[in-house]
């Protein structure tokens, strides 16, 4: 389905529609424009104008394209099974939903692109992390893990003019990791533009499949987090961060192992003063 929107210059509202369709293609044959407008939180007229932007005459015409070109995905079948769980299942249903996000992310993962992202992280002079809001936890996790492997890591300020204080230190050998979820913020616009001007690389981790950010980034990796109207899960993004970190550690294996051994010795030497807390 992504190919239907390739090389299309879409407005932000139309990007939301394209992103929704890409993630829920199996539902489209059974939807009307009112359903799509409600799901994407846009007006019906916006949905009506969308079809011409992607080369279709109408929703009916687009539905036929979907029926002709798309098979029901395994992830969708699995989701249907999850929907049958009783609300009383509580935590069990929540855990299963997290497993579905992992499966969706794995289904869209291209190993060659993932490897490119790993090489960027492993070869950069310094890795700068930008994760606003709930993504701050992802920045903290990646910072903690990569630092142990000897990677130089710095976290960027959340936003506003404080961001500029960090940008002046970024060089062309550096990498900026951007956790860009839901939409592109003004700070992210600045980071992408700055990276282009400075000549450094950008790695985007996102839950969008159609966005201007994807075109701006040197490398992008998709992680599923749920629909617009749902509580956004961080299960898949955390798993993706862990996968990236392990792969980087493998590339820097000797240094990572040496740092791990030195850390062990430091803990033993100073255990009396700084005991490990359980």
Automatic annotation (TrEMBL):
Q: Does the keyword DNA-binding apply?
A: yes
GO MF terms on file? carbohydrate derivative binding; DNA binding; DNA-binding transcription factor activity
Q: Which InterPro entries match?
A: Homeodomain-like_sf (IPR009057), HTH_RpiR (IPR000281), RpiR-like (IPR047640), RpiR-like_SIS (IPR035472), SIS_dom (IPR001347), SIS_dom_sf (IPR046348), WH-like_DNA-bd_sf (IPR036388)
A single GO BP: carbohydrate derivative metabolic process
- Protein name listed in UniProt: RpiR family transcriptional regulator
Which intervals hold domain HTH rpiR-type? 1-73
Q: Which Pfam families match?
A: HTH_6, SIS
Ordered alphabetically, the record's keywords are: DNA-binding, Transcription, Transcription regulation
The organism named in the record is Paenibacillus pectinilyticus
